[in-house]
Every structure is written in structure tokens, then in C-alpha cells.
Amino acid sequence: MTDVLVQAVDLVKRYPPRNRRDTGFTAVDGIDFSLHRGEAFGFLGPNGAGKSSTMRMIACVSPPTSGTLRVLGMDPRKEGQRIRARLGVVPQDDALDRELTVRENLLIYGRYFGLPKQVIAERGDRLLEFAQLTERGGERVEALSGGMRRRLTIARSLINEPEILLLDEPTTGLDPQARHVLWDRLFRLKQQGVSLVLTTHYMDEAEQLCDRLVVLDSGRIVAQGSPAELIATHSTREVLELRFGVGEQGTALEKLRDAGVHDRLEELPDRLLWYTAEGETALAVVHRLGLSPITAMVRRASLEDVFLALTGRTLVD
Ligand SMILES: Nc1ncnc2c1ncn2[C@@H]1O[C@H](COP(=O)(O)OP(=O)(O)OP(=O)(O)O)[C@@H](O)[C@H]1O
Fold this sequence. Notes:
The structure is a single chain. The chain is of the alpha/beta class. It has two domains: 4-16 and 25-226, P-loop containing nucleotide triphosphate hydrolases (Rossmann fold); 236-300, Alpha-Beta Plaits. The protein is built from eleven helices and 13 strands. Bound molecules: adenosine-5'-triphosphate. Its main location: membrane.
């Protein structure tokens, strides 16, 4: 039997007009998705796609305008408090108390959930260890690096031992090393049976962490599936990336087209993408035509290519 933890059908979030000239804004425009127990589910999309709005509805802090949303079998409009007791929420903004110590930040949160002192203390120790912050427990939050603060926010959101952890852009603003440490912690949580829902505009993060994801654009789902399925359906296996000198890209593109290249060629402001099963064979054609790119790189197709194929735009502006 499948165990569906979150189910959305034709879910809509419309914000009312803010003034008389404003007509309001539909941030989420009729989306369907479901989260199954034990999986990591992602919302991938550019800024403004409606990811945070969707997360806020699941977190029961913003009611849906219309459609059906069930979280842990309950209706967020009516049973928000009961749902929240079984959720962990990691917002984009850490909202930690900078004046308090690392440990105090955890304890305060435990009290918010009305947990007994002894339970909070035990979980606090375990969570500090999980967040690799045991040594820093007595330090004030302002002394921590960005990556440590994120790990503390995640630890704090786990104090009530949630079944679902919601993470809104968990690694935005972190350096690559801090991101990898955080991914490792999230993998660990998944192994422990926590179901994850996360938003991201980083395709590598979505590929690394998500079993399944939906690609959102302007409040609508443009595709959904596992990262591998999405790439297989919407892209070729390989991509040849070519960068040319100023003013040379247009001529190169024309030459490739005149030479009868039938593969998809995508022109971005700074590079030309050639979607092909065999990047090396394509590169040989480039050389045979006498084209001389400044750089030429064959790579595996990624979710970035999926997004480009579906929307005509790149994910990162
Ligand atoms: N309270 C609000 N009132 C009016 N419009 C809003 C409100 N909150 C969000 N929006 C708009 O809804 C759209 C979707 O916002 P949302 O935050 O859900 O997108 P997002 O995909 O999470 O992007 P980001 O990564 O920038 O947070 C944006 O254009 C935003 O300006």
C-alpha cells in the first residue's frame, strides 16, 4: 500500500490585490502532486515560480485559495495545529535568535512544542551531534558560519521528531563545501525515515537529493518525475557546449545549420548548446567545418537542460 503523506489536487494560491491599481497575483496555478512516505520530493524552479507559496500552504501558514490539499491525511485549513506538530519547517530565512547560544536555540524550540524538559535535553544533545555542533553548543549563534547556522536551523526543526521535513531553499547562499556537508546531513535524515520536501533553484541539488521532483514555472507544473526520467524524456544524453569570441557565435550557428545539423541547437547569450547523443562526434563536425570555439566541452545532460527545453529559459538568471 502506498503511503501518501501530502496530496494536492488543482491547488491554487492567489494573493489579493495590495492596492486599487493591483489586480492580485496567482502564484500557484492549479498544481497536482503527492509526497510518499520515505521519499525526498523537490520543487525546482526559478525565482517567483511559486515554490515558497506551495511550501507555505503545506506548512499550514498560508491557506490555499482553492483546490484540495491533504497533509498527513488532514486539511491544513482546519487542522493546522495538529499537522504542524508533526512537521519540521526550515524557512529560507533562518530566524535563529542571535543573542542566544546554539543550545538555547534548540531548547527554546522544544518548549514551543510543549515537550518535557528531560526530553528536550536528550533530543538537544542528539541533534547537536547530528548537526556536528556539539562543540559549539555554548557559543552564541552570531559566532557561527552560514553553513553551521543552516545545520542548526535543521536541527531545531527536528526537535519534535517530525515525519515530514519542509526545506525552503536549504543551501542558498552557502559555499560549495557547506552545501555538501548539508546534503550529507539530509541524506542521513532520509535514511532515518524522514520524508523530505524541498524547494531549490539549483539543479545539482535537485539531482543529488530528490527521488522525484516537479519543475515549476509561473505557478504551473511543466514536468514531473525522477531526475533521470526528466532528463531522458526532455533532453539528449550529451550536450556539447561551445563558447565563441565576440560576434562569432551567430556565424558558427549559421554554418552548423547550413551543414545540415539536425540536432537541437540552442543559442544562449554566452554559449551555444548542441544537444546530441554523442558529444565527441559533434565536436569532430565543429572542427571539420573549421569553426574555432574558445572553449568546447562535452557534458552529460542535466536538469538545467530539461528546464531550458521546457521553458526556453535557463534556471539561473
Ligand atoms: N503575499 C504576497 N502578495 C502578493 N504576491 C506575492 C505574495 N507572496 C508572493 N507573491 C508573489 O508570488 C510569486 C511567487 O512567489 P514565491 O515566493 O512562491 O516564488 P518562489 O518560487 O518561492 O520564488 P523565490 O525563490 O523568489 O522565493 C512571486 O511573483 C511573488 O512576488
